[in-house]
Model the fold of this input.
Amino acid sequence: MSLIQGGIFSQDAAIYCTAQWTKLASTADAHPAGQGTIGEDANMPVGSLGFVLSDVPLVGDVVMASHRLDMPANASQVLVRLDEVCFPVGAVAHRHTHCGPGIRHLVRGSLRIEADDHTQVMQAGDSWFEAAQSPVRAVAMQRQGVTSFVRCMVLPVDWQGKSTFALMDAKDGQLPRLQVTHRHIDHILQLDAG
Done:
């Protein structure tokens, strides 16, 4: 999977699909901050973000992040999810996992990501990859307004319409959950059988 900044893109790669996110004209602190669409190539309007699922990670000037994803063995379909998570001031996504890998891109605010092997503060414009079942805690760092990121994950199809957010400690379920998730797209992608 690769994340590209919109425009015309050309590389010798088989593109399975592109989940595109375009910022809305006037968002301020609105949630969601953008809208999502699905396509079959990597060409999109300038200013859009494209999460491109291809046979090889993409490279080039417009590529913001890239990570090799292996499709599930013996799967004829996968679910491509594009969603957006918005954190108000003081919000914490307590230590949790997701059942599928994907790339995230911070579109506004500041977010501290705490993983098992590192902690990193992300600023608007930063991107990162999270592997499936990789525990992470996210803390909104802004003092006013909102922090939000858009992400694209590849999931088993039985997760269509369901949240993949799984807390690592059941006690954290009693704590406030201030972040809000907006699901833009759940797209079932047919994989090549051959």
Remarks:
- DSSP finds no helices and 15 strands in the chain.
- The chain has a mean pLDDT of 91.
